[in-house]
Design goal:
With 488 residues, the chain is an all-alpha fold. The chain has 17 helices and two strands. The chain has helices at residues 3-6, 12-40, 54-86, 94-119, 133-155, 164-183, 189-193, 207-242, 249-262, 278-290, 292-304, 312-315, 317-340, 342-348, 353-382, 389-422, 434-471, and strands at residues 186-188, 201-203. Heme b 1; low-spin binds at residues 61, 359.
């Protein structure tokens, strides 16, 4: 594609979601660092009365990072990638432009209300699904608007073949829609009993059924938000940035269908040794182990894309970010199935190993890939050179150090917890009280918090670099031309 044609794409909505991703990234990660230090130094819980406690801030952290930073990054990259792989500009359809702008502003209104309500302690207490029913309805509207933009752009495309990234974006839309609707079936208590808060609700499911539906949703939120759209990004941005074609298009399709089938059945591993039927637990474990195959299929395909071109990791910091993202993806998708093995789960469940596992994937895979994508998009959206590649290098090493400190400290803490909880004396009594384990873990919590702080510092460096790219960097008339022949 000629550089002069690339400038015809309308990036106005992609820019808006880029700003939102940076804003929510700062807010979500800053709160994450605060609550990490609250774990290490409990007295910090009392600095701001009830509104500053771990229990009040934790849902803000998870929602801010997942539904703020991550979703904004997904939307930003969609409005960038979609136009280019379909070879059509959003500006060619006034209807789609209106839909896209409504999508952004309604999303921002939703996130603002969500932050306020969670800060006030209004929520359902369901993991990754804390919002009450009025906001759930607004979530559906926002999601439908995104779907209209996806299928509307597909409908007016010039490129008849859908590149693999489009497969993953469409799967993200359909998967989350199904999961969200089923998990958030709820009954507003005010309309049933005529009393209580107007916004309060209870789940339509009860007991064990509620747990199974919740973790069918919860784990697949990881699948269709943390995984599938990020693979869509790397399949587009790595070939574009490196100039290398995807190693195997057939493998990308095989891995896609493997993920679609296997991931949906793995959520039961969150409920091992609980009251759910044993067959559900076993199925969750088996499918979690099988999940290694399509996950590593994608990751290996990404790594082999750089076959013979590994020197680019020294020359191009964006390629380095993407390759390390894929490496963390391999690491996390091996660790997860190991944790789903029943004998390992007996030791690891409810320990700090679990947040360690979540964060090595989130910070390494998701965080690195979104930042690399926005870095790649910035010169093309703002028609300016990246302000400082040396700053990207420094950011990379600071954040990588932070990730390693985070997950290694949580590994040690988690295994220590599990061993202490299981330890017995010669009479068969528990050898340690719960507070004994807490006391032993305090140094590891401090290391974890410091790792998170390093990652936050790196994110501020990223923010500064993007800001300077937008405002002070050298203007360019034509975008960089290192595109792969297989990417639009």
């Amino acid at each position: 594609m000629q550089a002069r044609d690339a400038l015809n794409y309308d990036y106005s909505v992609a820019k808006c979601f880029t700003y939102a991703a940076i804003l929510f990234g700062i807010v979500g990660m800053l709160i994450g660092v605060v609550i990490a230090y609250q774990m290490a130094f409990p007295e910090l819980n009392y600095l701001a009365d009830e509104y500053g406690t771990f229990s009040r801030l934790r849902p803000l952290h998870t929602s801010g990072v997942i539904f703020g930073f991550l979703l904004s990054g997904i939307f930003a990259t969609w409005y960038y990638i979609g136009q280019r792989v379909l070879k059509v500009s959003m500006a060619e359809s006034p209807f789609l432009m209106i839909i896209a702008k409504i999508h952004f502003w309604l999303y921002m209104i939703l996130m603002t209300i969500a932050v306020v309500s969670l800060f006030m302690g209004i929520g359902t207490s369901k993991e990754y699904a804390e919002l009450e029913w009025p906001l759930d309805i607004l979530v559906v509207v926002v999601w439908v608007l995104w779907g209209v933009s996806i299928f509307g752009l597909v409908g007016i495309r010039r490129e008849k073949t859908l590149y693999i990234s489009m497969w993953y974006f469409i799967a993200t839309f359909l998967g989350v829609a199904m999961l969200f609707l089923f998990n958030n079936m709820e009954v507003p208590t005010y309309f049933v009993a005529g009393t209580g808060k107007w916004y309060h609700s209870v789940s339509m499911y009860a007991g064990t059924n509620d747990a199974m539906v919740q973790w069918w949703y919860g784990h697949n939120a990881v699948a269709f938000v943390f995984t599938v759209p990020i693979i869509a990004m790397i399949y587009y941005f790595l070939p574009k940035e490196s100039g290398q074609p995807v190693y195997s298009y057939k493998l990308s399709l095989l891995s896609f269908w493997g993920l679609m089938f296997v991931y949906l059945w793995a959520g039961g591993h969150h409920l091992i040794y609980s009251t759910v039927p044993d067959w559900v637990q076993t199925m969750g474990s088996i499918f979690s182990i099988i999940l290694i195959l399509p996950s590593w299929g994608s990751a290996i395909n990404i790594l082999l894309t750089m076959k013979g071109q590994w020197g680019q990791l020294k020359e191009n910091p964006l390629v380095k970010l993407m390759i390390f993202a894929s490496t963390f993806y391999m690491f996390s998708t091996l660790e997860g199935p190991i944790l789903a093995i029943k004998s390992v789960n007996a030791l690891a469940h409810f320990t700090d190993w679990i947040p360690g596992h979540v964060h090595d994937g989130t910070l390494g895979w998701v965080g690195f890939m979104i930042m690399a994508a926005l870095y790649h998009m910035a010169p093309r959206m703002f028609q300016r050179e990246i302000y400082s590649k040396k700053l990207i290098e420094a950011q990379f090493w600071i954040q990588t150090t932070g990730i390693v400190l985070y997950f290694s400290s949580m590994w040690i803490a988690g295994i220590t917890q599990g061993m202490m909880w299981r330890a017995t004396d010669q009479f068969g009594n528990l050898a340690y009280s719960f507070i004994d384990t807490v006391t032993v873990l305090m140094p590891y919590y401090a290391i974890r918090a410091t790792g998170g702080l390093l990652y936050l510092i790196g994110f501020f460096m990223f923010t500064y670099n993007i800001y300077k790219t937008m405002t002070a960097s050298k203007a360019i008339e034509a975008e960089p031309q290192n595109a792969s022949p297989m990417a639009a």
